[in-house]
Each structure stands twice: as structure tokens, then as C-alpha cells.
Amino acid sequence: MGIISRGFGGRRRESLPGLPPGQYLTHDFPVLSAGPTPRIPLDRWKFTITTETGEKHSWDWKEFTALPAEEFTVDIHCVTKWSKLGTTWKGVALDTLFEDVESAADYTMAHSYGGYTTNVPLDDLLEGKAWLVYEFDGEPLHPEHGGPVRLLVPHLYFWKSAIWVNGLQMINEDEPGFWEAGGYHMYGDPWREQRYQGD
Amino acid sequence: MKNRISWRVATVSSARWETASARTLVLDVPDWPGHLPGQHIDVRLTAEDGYTAQRSYSIASAWTPAPSATGAGSAGAPGTVELTIQRLDDGEVSPYLTDVVEPGDQIELRGPVGGWFVWREKQTAPVLLIAGGSGIVPLMAMIRARGEARGRQPFRLIYSVRTPEDAAYADELRLRVRENPGLDVHFVYTRKAPDGWPTPPKRIDVAAINSHGWPPDFQPDCYVCGPTSFVETAADILVALGHDPKRIRTERFGGA
């Protein structure tokens, strides 16, 4: 236990089963990003999975939205301590996108319009654990929140859910992405409070 | 590496009000490793029964170099970190830090964190700082760092506040504009302007950023910090004016 701060009682905000340690509940939807919001016209949008051998699998907007989509409700957790419970999204499971992809690589680097990157192990994207989403709460995903399409990996801190995503690069060795290179944790499990390197 | 980010005990050495709802805590952190302006820290408070709460706050003070083992009389000298905390009335941590904490009290912190929204003395480009409300804090750290290093990089600050009374660091900014050549400050008042102000209160707009920022062909480094909607607006205007999105760094904050 840490040192006690005199006179601090805390407000004992909601202590809910869905709330990882150190997180507090928010009802609004804060935005976190490192630069201006890019506006990507749908007729120019494209998503590409590139394997470690350089093989490319691409979808344009029409092809992507023709894929079987799911509506689902999950909790999301930001490293800046807010969590939002019961958020509803619509998108394509990564399992669907990886159906025809042949790869022996264990890691991926997500790339975004605007240059953002983040690393995620492939196992954390498959078996119903991650989606490319394009609707939030029944509405097209707003550019502020990563629209037209963002990655959603709800079991990891939200910085792993790359906004404005446009590609996944398969890599054999794990490499740090944008925030990871700046000292954030390589994996980012909110339940183990993996915020920074060494956590 | 592991210790770089461990929790440290900080002792409040003094505190002062910047506005009616924002207070600066000066913290002694004996083993502080130093920081860059723009970085933030995590604060952890622990109640007597073990309940804890954590929040992130931007650092307000200029960098503090790591104490050098051979430093002139400063070996082992305590590091100092200043935080300016805006009270959020429904917050759990900020009202404690603004209204309860007194000099001598201890809190825990760790950091510094963040290597993107920072300004380094070796950057030579002109700098445009755009602050909305308490978004001024990390930008003030940059202004102070430039001032203390006697930097000559041209700096412009556009600072949006509701009323003149809501401007933190107002006296220090006035002083620095006089004493730190190459620093300009322009206020945008959204609710109430001072007597004699040439324009009625209004939100930050293209005209304000065009008139008081740098032209895009000067290739300034832009830092925008404030509430989400403010940052969205200001960053969109910068892009529309022709600034390279890669030179625009943003930091947005929510509540609590």
C-alpha cells in the first residue's frame, strides 16, 4: 500500500465488476489522439493486410462493408484512467478479414491515416477478440473517434484500438508502435495495469 | 529502465492559487529524474483504508535536470515539480488537490510520461502554442523552459479563456512578454472581454489563428491543448490554413 494522503477519503465512485483497477467510470466519450483529425473520403478509403512475405490483401469501402458484420457490446478502458462500459459497435471481426491470409508471423503492427502505429499480437486479434468497426451506437463512426474505421481490441488499453486504421502489417518480432516507443507498455492489459514499460 | 517509472513520494512545499479554481502545488521530489516541458505525471492518492485513486496531470514547471553526482553543490538536491490543478466540481481527485492539500502533505507520483507532446530546446522552428482553458499548463512549461534557457525561438501563444479572471499565469505571462524577447501572447475571450478590448467575446476562429499564429510557410511547430471540442476546432483551422498535420501536436483532456 502506498503512503496515505492526509484527508483523502475518495468519492468511492462506482466500484463495478467491469471496472479494472485504477480506472474510473465515464459516461461521455473522451478523445485521445496525437494530432489533427484526418478526414478520409470513403471513395479513397482502403484497408490492407500485408503479410511478412509482402503479400497484400486489400478491401475498398464497398468490399469492406459487404463483408459480414456484427453488432456487439463491450467495455473499453483508456490508459488515462477512464473506462466506458457497455459500448455498442458494428464492424467486421478480424477473423473474417484473416480468412484467406496465410502467415506464420505472431505479431502485427496496425497503421493509420495520419501515421499512427500500434503493435498487437496476432492472437489478440483473432477468435472474436477484435474488430474493424464503422458504427458506434448505431451511427457512422465520427472522425473524432477514428472514423470511418477504427480497430477495436476491447480487452487491451484503448490506445491499441488504432483510430483511422488503414492497414495491418504482419511482423515476426514484436516492435513498439507510436506510444510504445514513448514508454508505454508493449502489451497493455488493463486488468494487470500494464500502462508503462516495466509495469 | 524499470525504475524510471516507479512511484515516488512527493511533499507539497508550497501552494498558490492561479485563478479562483486553479491551484499550483510545488512539490519536492527528492529523486526526481527531470522532465521535458509538455510531459505529464500520474498522481496516486491513498485513503486511510487503502482506497486509491489515480489521475494524470501535465507538469507546469520548466524542465529540471537530473541531479548530477558532480553537480556544483546540488548533488542530491531535491527535484521540484509544479502542477497546476483545475478543480472539477464533480471530480474525485482535483477538489482534494485544490482545496484540501496543504504544505507538508504527501502524495505519490510517477513519471515523467510522454515523449510526443513535448518541446525540446534544440528545436529551432518557430512555435505556435494554442491553449484552451487549463490546456495552458503544459504550454506554460514550454514558455518557462524557453525563458529559463534564454531561447531565441520565436514563440506565439494564443490563449482562450472565458473571462480575464479565468486566465492562469496572467501576471507571469505579462512579465515574460517584457523580459523574454520573441514571445507574444494573444488572449481570446469567449464570455467576457476586459474593458476596452477591441472585439466582443467570441470563440477561437480562423481570424484569431491567422492573425496571431505563424504563416504555414514558416513551418512552425504547433502545440494545441485543451478540451476536445476546442482542440478539434483549432487543429482543423490549422490544417485548413495549410499547416502540415505532422507539425501539429495535440493533447485533449476530458473530465474528473
Automatic annotation (TrEMBL), chain A:
UniProt-listed SUPFAM superfamilies:
Oxidoreductase molybdopterin-binding domain (SSF56524)
Instruction: List where the protein spans the membrane.
Output: none
Q: Which residues form the Oxidoreductase molybdopterin-binding domain?
A: 35-179
Note the CDD domains from the entry: arch_bact_SO_family_Moco
InterPro entries noted in UniProt: OxRdtase_Mopterin-bd_dom, OxRdtase_Mopterin-bd_sf
Which segments carry the region annotation Disordered?
1-21
The cross-references to Pfam families, in alphabetical order and at most eight, read: Oxidored_molyb (PF00174)
Q: Any signal peptide, and if so, which residues?
A: none
Q: Which PANTHER family match?
A: OXIDOREDUCTASE MOLYBDOPTERIN-BINDING DOMAIN-CONTAINING PROTEIN, PROTEIN-METHIONINE-SULFOXIDE REDUCTASE
User: What is this protein called in UniProt?
Assistant: Oxidoreductase molybdopterin-binding domain-containing protein
Q: Which organism is it from?
A: Actinoplanes missouriensis (strain ATCC 14538 / DSM 43046 / CBS 188.64 / JCM 3121 / NBRC 102363 / NCIMB 12654 / NRRL B-3342 / UNCC 431)
Automatic annotation (TrEMBL), chain B:
* Pfam family of the protein (one): NAD_binding_1
PROSITE patterns of this UniProt entry? FAD_FR
CDD domains, per this entry? FNR_iron_sulfur_binding_3 (cd06217)
List the GO molecular function terms.
2 iron, 2 sulfur cluster binding; oxidoreductase activity
- UniProt name for this protein: Putative oxidoreductase
The organism of origin for this protein: Actinoplanes missouriensis (strain ATCC 14538 / DSM 43046 / CBS 188.64 / JCM 3121 / NBRC 102363 / NCIMB 12654 / NRRL B-3342 / UNCC 431)
Annotated ranges, domain FAD-binding FR-type: 5-119
Keyword annotations for this protein, in alphabetical order, are: 2Fe-2S, Iron, Iron-sulfur, Metal-binding
Q: Which PANTHER family match?
A: NADH OXIDOREDUCTASE HCR (PTHR47354), PROTEIN RFBI (PTHR47354:SF5)
Q: Which domain of life is it from?
A: Bacteria
Q: Which cofactor does it need?
A: FAD
